[in-house]
Amino acid sequence: MKILNTLSKQKEEFQPLVPGKVSMYVCGPTVYNLIHIGNARPMVFFDVVRRYFLYRGYEVNYVSNFTDVDDKIIKRALEEGVDSSVISRRYIEECKKDMVSLNVMEATTHPLATEEIDGMIEMIATLIDRGFAYRAGDGTVYYRTRKFPYYGKLSHKNLDDLRSGNRSILVTGEEQKEDPLDFVLWKPKKEGEPAWPSPWCEGRPGWHIECSVMSRKYLGEQIDIHGGGEDLIFPHHENEIAQSEAVSGKEFAKYWMHNAFLNIDNHKMSKSDGNFFTVRDILAKYEGRVLRLFLLSAHYRSPLNFSDELMRAAKSSLERIINCAGNLDHLSKHAQTAEMTGEEQALLDESDRFGTAFEQAMDDDFNTADALAAVYELVRFINSRTTEESSAAFVQALQERLYRLTDVLGLDLSIDKASGNAEEDARIEAMIAERQAARKAKDFARADAVRDELAAMGIILEDTREGVKWKRA
Ligand code: AMP
Ligand code: ZN
Fold first, then answer.
1. What pairs with residue 11 in β-bridges?
2. 39 lines ligand 1 (CB under 6 A)
């Protein structure tokens, strides 16, 4: 498996630190609002990375944080006149709901910054002890950037260029820094802000330290993969490296992966610029799995422009896959023969090439666009090679192949998705069976009554060659 490593800008062969295991840390959202679909891009993509490692037989330890102490959260809390924990807790819950809608697996650990303050104080103290950090007059603790010889290695920035570029942007408090590039590890409390006691002053941590601390605590000093959106490369991830490596003396993360932006009209979707759609906005119009497929339709390192047209295309692509899975379901239930014929076995062997193409795409830096193309080809193959005469074994084997691939992409192919309610589905199926029985018995009044009842429930029936199909309106 090859990964384009931001550190080397090269595609590198993946070699885990521990054979058979993968440790991943993905920077999570700052929780002051509903997440937008730009935030959903890394969530969905890195979920696929995780799923593909699982598919390849690795054990994956996946950590993703919630930044629950931050200026934007505090501002929102002040606006609403509530404690900032009310805001962060609310949006963590909302974010988790969106993750369920998008079929994102729950992280092995989802740490919260505010629950890791002790660890942060400890790491900051170590950095001070080792000369990598210092306390300024007002109690702010800064990281001494120039002390870390590899600063800039991830973002491929030259320290001198950075320094001259930064000199002109002095903001409040900057004058107490030894160097304009030094960044905050701990800052003093301001009126009305959440604060914790520390050896330096009552205050709160800077943003970067939380990820170094959580990654170390839950995954160890060294991890395989660290991910996030490309806006995090500098300064956030550069600073994480400076903090973590100054403490451990070891390489922090082996592979750095960064997704490109989700754009609108070729501009980065962002909350602060106000040009965004929340996941919730989109879910009002499309199912989560449609959004998921849309987000995976481009390679993660390519910018992706949001449009209704692309969403509609994603919707119809998904429907093609779902219909194929539904057909297989139907054929398998109504198959006349159980055993696979020799001819079918040959076709099945032929279908292996789609799985191979899928794996090649995923092995090549997780090319989900090409992986999806392999799925569409498999669907075309299945549609053209299966009939009412197909054996159950053949149909089931094809179905297994299809599901194996769509599972990696986290695409749920169940016919009913809108409710996800198995009990209701069973009731609908029973009503459809009753309508069929009534029609057979020429009790058309009863059959129509059942159909109307189903229509009132928002269920649309479709009489097809393979029998009656249904979907929610
Ligand atoms: P934030 O809440 O801004 O810290 O962002 C959480 C995650 O979403 C980070 O990995 C960001 O890099 C990522 N992100 C934010 N905006 C976008 C966007 N428009 N496209 C892709 N990723 C984004
Ligand atoms: Zn981070």
1. 4
2. yes
Ligand with an atom nearest the CA of residue 236: 2
Please name the amino acid found at residue 198: S
Query: Which long-range contacts (C-beta less than 8 Å, at least 24 apart) are formed by 317-322?
Result: 317/293, 317/372, 317/376, 318/289, 318/290, 318/293, 318/411, 320/376, 320/379, 321/375, 321/376, 321/379, 321/402, 321/406, 321/411, 321/413, 322/413, 322/415
Q: Give residue limits of the domains in the chain.
A: 2-130+208-259, 422-472
Out of 159-163, 222-226, 443-447, give the one with best mean pLDDT.
222-226
Q: Which atom of ligand 1 is nearest to the CA of 268?
A: 19
Q: Does domain 2-130+208-259 have CATH number 2.60.120.10?
A: no
Which ligand is nearest to the Cα of residue 229, counting in written order? 1
Q: DSSP 3-state assignment of 142? A: strand
Among candidates 435, 426, 347, which has minimal Cα distance to 387? 347
Cα of 301 from ligand 2 centre, angstroms: 19
446 ligand 1 Cβ < 6 A: no
Helix (H, G, I), strand (E, B) or coil at 196: strand
**pLDDT band at residue 169 under the 50/70/90 scheme:** very low
3-class secondary-structure state, position 319:
helix
Q: Report percent pLDDT > 90 for the chain.
A: 82
Cα separation, 221 vs 228, in Å, equals: 19
The reply to whether ligand 1 has any atom less than 6 angstroms from the CB of 242 is no
pLDDT digits (tens, 9 = 90+) for 308-363: 999 999 999 999 999 999 999 999 999 999 999 999 999 999 999 999 999 999 99
Ligand nearest to the CA of 207: 2
Ligand 2 centre to CA of 206 (Å) is: 11
pLDDT of residue 74 exceeding 80: yes
Which range (111-125, 221-235, 432-446) has the least confidence? 432-446
Residue nearest to atom 2 of ligand 1 (CA): 29
Closest CA to 109 of 19, 212, 35, 217: 217
Count how many Cα atoms sit within 13 Å of the Cα of residue 286 in the half-sphere of its side chain. Answer: 25
Looking at the predicted structure, is the pLDDT value of residue 174 above 80?
A: no
Q: Token digits for 82?
A: 């509530």
Categorize the per-residue pLDDT at 164 as very low, low, confident or very high, splitting at 50, 70 and 90. Answer: low
Q: Establish whether residue 33 lines the binding site of ligand 1, counting it when its CB lies within 6 angstroms of any ligand atom.
A: no
Nearest residue (by CA) to ligand 1, atom 1, is 29
Whose CA is closest to atom 20 on ligand 1?
261
